[in-house]
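Practice problem 4.
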């Protein structure tokens, strides 16, 4: 019903944009066109499409239309996977200075491992320092 178009005439991308504008629809990236149309109508408070509205000239529904995905009720969006109880701890708010402090500590450990002659440990710490450098650059782009 936007720009003089009916929802059925809109593309899926246009329907997703309309759904985002309503702000009431969740899981729209996984929805199909028919699901998006019914969800938009429900969010806007309009009537949802029924079989009678799709075929107003007859009271019986043709067998081909009864099995079509447009007239079947929308499927529920998949649930988000449950959070794992174990695993990595939550990340705290990082700043560039805190990351540089971590790099300094790791550099000290790297010097100690180099003196001991541990090449694999040294390489592991080198990669960790490089990852921290990437994170500082990323933070520098984000923060004004």
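Answer key:
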């Amino acid at each position: 019903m936007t720009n003089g178009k009916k929802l059925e005439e809109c593309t899926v991308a246009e329907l997703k944009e309309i759904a985002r504008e309503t702000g009431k629809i969740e899981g729209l990236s996984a929805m199909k066109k028919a699901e998006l149309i019914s969800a938009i109508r429900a969010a806007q408070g309009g009537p949802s499409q029924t079989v009678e509205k799709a075929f107003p000239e007859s009271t019986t529904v043709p067998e081909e239309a009864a099995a079509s995905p447009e007239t079947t009720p929308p499927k529920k969006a998949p649930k988000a996977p449950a959070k794992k109880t174990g695993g990595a701890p939550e990340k705290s708010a990082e700043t560039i200075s805190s990351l540089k402090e971590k790099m300094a500590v790791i550099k000290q450990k790297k010097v100690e491992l180099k003196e001991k002659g541990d090449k694999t440990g040294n390489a592991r710490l080198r990669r960790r320092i490089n990852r921290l450098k990437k994170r500082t650059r990323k933070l520098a782009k984000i923060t004004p």
